[in-house]
Amino acid sequence: MYSLQRDVFFDVNLEDLLISADKVAHVQVGNTLEHALLVLVKSGYTAVPVLDSAFKLHGLISKNIILDSLLGVERIETEKLAEYNVEEVMDTNIPQVTLNHTFIKVLGMSINHPFICVVDEEGAFEGIITRRVILKLVIRHLNQE
Ligand code: 4BW
């Protein structure tokens, strides 16, 4: 029988779970949907962060958002891939924390979000914490009990 104490998570340092910004696939606000779709398909990820040239976080873009934005009444309007910019369709409801937040907070957010963005106090993007990394930590603690 597994048991898990809430206390074991109080000391978790979010920095230890971070996939740093330089390793995270991303697109820029002014990129076309065509470029974003290329990044998503080539990286294999479903969704990635949208940043500006100063690395400030503005939103998330996903394959589904892009495909949805191409839907016309009777056909898929692929010409929109070159006409629209990422910032026109991106999701601005971003799951995000700073490194001062608790692991419990991030664990709760990961129920609804496959990754959580980490920003500094000025909103500059520092990286992501993925559901995979979170679950690995929980499993490691379960096995230690
Ligand atoms: O290219 C991949 N490499 C590896 N090692 N695993 C992958 C890859 N693509 C997908 N996966 C696996 C991971 O377990 O499938 C899960 C779901 O991927 P997703 O959501 O739907 O593309 C992955 O789970 P995860 O590691 O917990 O990552 C959750 C989500 O975080 C991913 C993706 O949207 C984002 N993500 C993860 N690493 C990223 C990233 N986005 C940009 N750059 C990265 N390096």
From TrEMBL:
The record's section on Pfam families has: CBS
List, alphabetically, the InterPro entries matched.
Answer: CBS_CbpB, CBS_dom, CBS_dom_sf, Diverse_CBS-Domain
Superkingdom of origin organism = Bacteria
Which keywords has UniProt assigned to this entry? CBS domain
Q: Where is the CBS domain?
A: 19-78
Statement: the UniProt record of this protein carries the keyword Metal-binding? no
Quote the SUPFAM superfamilies the UniProt record gives: CBS-domain pair
NCBIfam families in the record: CBS_CbpB
Recorded protein name is CBS domain-containing protein
Instruction: Provide the organism lineage as a comma list.
Output: Bacteria, Bacillati, Bacillota, Bacilli, Bacillales
